[in-house]
Automatic annotation (TrEMBL):
Family the entry assigns: In the C-terminal section; belongs to the RimK family.
Stated name of the protein: Probable alpha-L-glutamate ligase
This protein's UniProt keywords: ATP-binding, Ligase, Magnesium, Manganese, Metal-binding, Nucleotide-binding, Protein biosynthesis
CC cofactor: Mn(2+); Mg(2+)
A GO cellular component annotation in the UniProt record: cytoplasm
SUPFAM superfamilies named in the record: Acid proteases, Glutathione synthetase ATP-binding domain-like
Biological source species: Pacificibacter maritimus
A biological process from GO: translation
Amino acid sequence: MTDKAAFALGWEEWAQLPDLGLPALKVKVDTGARTSALHAFDIEPFGPASAPMVRFNIHPVPGREDIVISCSAKVVDRREVTSSNGETELRYVIGSTIQMGDRVWPVEITLTNRINMAYRMLLGRQAIAEDMIVTPTESFCQPTLDDSAYFTAQIRKASAPRALRIAVLSREPESYSTQRLVTEGESRGHVVEVIDTTRCYMAINAMAPEIYYDGARLPRYDAVIPRVGASITSYGCAVIRQFETIGTFCLNPADGIAKSRDKLQAHQVLARHQIDMPTTAFAASPKDTDNLIDLAGQAPLIVKLLESTQGRGVVLAETKKAAQSVISAFRGLKANFLVQHFVKEASGVDIRCVVIDGKVVAAIKRSSSGGDFRSNLHLGGTATSVRITKAEREAAVKSAKAFGLRMAGVDLLRADDGPKVLEVNSSPGLEGAEKTTQKNIAGLLYDGIEKRMRPMPAKKSNLRKAP
């Protein structure tokens, strides 16, 4: 019985690090070095102390700092490493698999900035198995890889799932929606942190804008999912704008949230995009009450506060006299409101369409309870799954796009002359839609975020292939 042939390595080889999403990397094999090292910058630890992780960026191709790949990995250790020039550095140690030819094996790798080194990775003797023979005079004993992989769609296919650091802006950490976002994100290996919007404060300047929380600067997040309540819309949008200023991806932009929350502006946005809605009228002067009612149509009418939410602040006026009384009362409270045509044929039923990244991913029919014209689930309404028409789907998608919202709850009424958009919600609740349709809406949301976080390949290469 003969021994298995030794695995030959030259002093330089091509390797893949599939766990980190690196499809091609030129490696220096150095038996004089004890530990392996990988080029990394912007190194940032994250996650709980019981399961720490680290994320970092890498320029995989020497001389091409325009090519950046973001990686993340579990932390195995922190270790002092002395380099060849005698300098000692405390480094994060991660575990990964490495592949050369058809051989795949686990290695421990330290992270350090090797920007001035000719090789982005050094393979030390601890990572070299007993059946491996290193020939210092040979190069590329194993098959070479095409470094143009960095400039093709291959890098997107090879990219390993990367653990993301995500903030959920919410003042209700125990709510169904917030909990679903946390559990779904964590089930995918991400670190999800719930941030109370009102406890954030900001340093606003041109060169180094920052966001602070409970006395400390917030870390850099890969993405922010806003769940900003109506009572703090203004401050919440200011915080989101600050995240946008420092370059953080926000699921919904501050501008879209602000426009959707202001009922008057929201209807003006819908009108500008030629999206059908119930006829709506607005006026500030009490002298215009009768004209306002006439513009909205004949009674019954809906009188709605501009900052109403979850059906509160919405009144049905059965007669013109009742409408005059409600308008007078709202004006007495110095409240801003609008008057809207009541779509009687809807019979207390509306359609909630959940739109994510330009697609309707769930639709439910909400019916009012106890003769109430409002169908909100918070007010006791019931929900059932529903098939929507092409016109309803198009109206929902067009509405979300009009506000620039990547996730939205679009409420429609089924009128005799087609769907009418009632409202566009920038922070739709997940509970009613998920439990009614049995769809993993939180998962679909994360699908979109993960897709956006994948590395983008450069368009062309000026590099030569390995010999």
